[in-house]
Write a structure and sequence with these properties.
Elements: H1 2-92, E1 98-102, E2 105-109, H2 110-116
Antiparallel strand pairs: 1-2
């Protein structure tokens, strides 16, 4: 092989030295980029999970509001029904005591009125 062949073989590793230095310089940045991509993908997954949990919480909140509205209206209807029953009992004289105001005074109705003979 001769002197020129020997020099050529020794020059080959030196020819790759700039590329190796470039790769060695870029490796930390490439690793950081890979890590950022992984974290971003994980973050997107976590963000999607958080959004899903938020929507579930909103649906649960809406359901609870609906139940409270139904209970409120049910309470109002029960109150109106009780008032109506009280009015019909008073008008029929079925109540325990009714007080009727007349220009002459008071008269008692219901059970109390029957006991007093009025």
């Amino acid at each position: 092989m001769g002197l020129l062949g020997q020099l050529g073989l020794e020059a080959i590793p030196t020819a790759y030295t700039p590329q190796q230095e470039l790769i060695r310089t870029l490796t930390p940045q490439l690793e950081a980029s890979r890590l950022a991509s992984t974290l971003q993908a994980t973050g997107l997954g976590l963000g999607a999970g958080l959004a899903e949990a938020g929507l579930e919480a909103q649906l649960g909140y809406t359901d609870i509001l609906g139940q409270l509205e139904r209970q409120r209206y049910q309470g109002l209807f029960d109150l109106l029904r009780a008032e109506r029953q009280a009015q019909t009992q008073t008008s029929r004289g079925d109540g325990l005591a009714t007080v009727n105001v007349t220009p002459e005074g008071f008269t008692f109705g219901g059970t109390l009125g029957r006991l007093l003979g009025q």
